[in-house]
Amino acid sequence: MSWPLDDKFLTARNAAILAFIRRQQPSAHSDVASVLTASAGGLAGVQWYCPDVHRYAYMVLHSRDNTIFGIAYGMQSLAFRLPPGMIPEAVTSGGSVDAAIGDEWVLFPPWGQARPEGDLQRWCKIAYFYAAGGGFRGTGTEP
């Protein structure tokens, strides 16, 4: 199935994720898409996009300026675009660089791994602030 790309995402900041979507045309199981959207709970301004919910297309999270920072695809793939300085910690906490997308993207198992409660929410928050252009300082005062 070929999924369309919305023109609003055609920006330089989205180049890696758009190239991945064009190459792979990924679908997403509804369970992994639900985990992705739940990870963004409480973050004002986060938006989601799925080109065809009824046919289980991939799902992305994006900022108000349409910078994509999270994606659910496949049966259990959930990835966030993280600041380079946070990637070693993300890998130590159970993530892995998602080479299929790019160096800034870290793949996290959506379930089945012992991790601190709120871990995916934390990585989603970091990815969101990074996408919003504010970086992430860990101070709790991010935009």
Q: What is the total tally of β strands?
A: 6
Q: Looking at the structure, what is the overall shape?
A: globular
CATH top level class name: Alpha Beta
Order of helices and strands: HHEEEEHEEH
Quote the CATH topology: Aspartate Aminotransferase, domain 1
CATH architecture field:
Alpha-Beta Complex
What Rg, in angstroms, do the CA atoms define? 14 Å
How many domain regions?
A: 1
Discrete helix count: 4
Structural class: alpha+beta
Mean pLDDT over the residues: 89
Any low-confidence stretches, pLDDT <50, length ≥5? Answer: 137-143
Largest sheet: 6 strands, antiparallel
Q: Strand-residue fraction?
A: 15-25%
Distance between the termini: 37 Å
Structure description:
- This protein is of the alpha+beta class and 143 residues long.
- The chain has a single domain (7-131), classed as Alpha-Beta Complex (Aspartate Aminotransferase, domain 1), CATH 3.90.1150.
- It contains 4 helices and 6 strands.
- It has a 6-stranded antiparallel sheet with strand order 1-2-3-4-6-5.
- The chain is globular.
